[in-house]
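Provenance and format

Records in this collection were gathered into a single text stream. Each protein contributes a sequence line and a token line. The two records reproduced below are adjacent in the stream.
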Amino acid sequence: MRDYELMLIISPTLETEAEEEVLGKALKIIEGNGGAVEKSDKWGKKRLAYPIRKFEDGSYHVVKFKGEKETVAELDRVMGITDQVLRSMIVKRPLAKG
């Protein structure tokens, strides 16, 4: 398994419960495909560099997880078609030196 990091920018108009549902959907995909969530951080609402779908702000979430490439592909696909997600990005984390 590789180390990955998922960054989500979620619509700022969602209530806290709906926002947690979207994040829960991502976590369920990771764990359902044999991955493991290491850490999930909510950065809160931040100003976007440019408007996305007419939104000036977005709610940022960062999830560090371990998974296989199939997990990443499915997560990317589902986050791409989820209306409440303005942007998502998955990157490989560098291997720990040691």
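Adjacent record:
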Amino acid sequence: MKKLTRKKQGRVIAGVSGGIGEYIGLDPVIVRLVLIFLFIVTGLVPIVILYLAAIFLVPEEADPTIRDI
């Protein structure tokens, strides 16, 4: 089962776009372009609030170099 996580590698700000792109099967650049488009269309506040919420609510992906014992 897929889990939505923030990416550690290839992140630009907090890894939200990379995580969303991996979850839905799109390139993170496309997700970023959609977010920029929504930013322009809706204005600053809604997208910034959603992005900040995603930073705090979406967990960061596990470090593949750390093994659970």
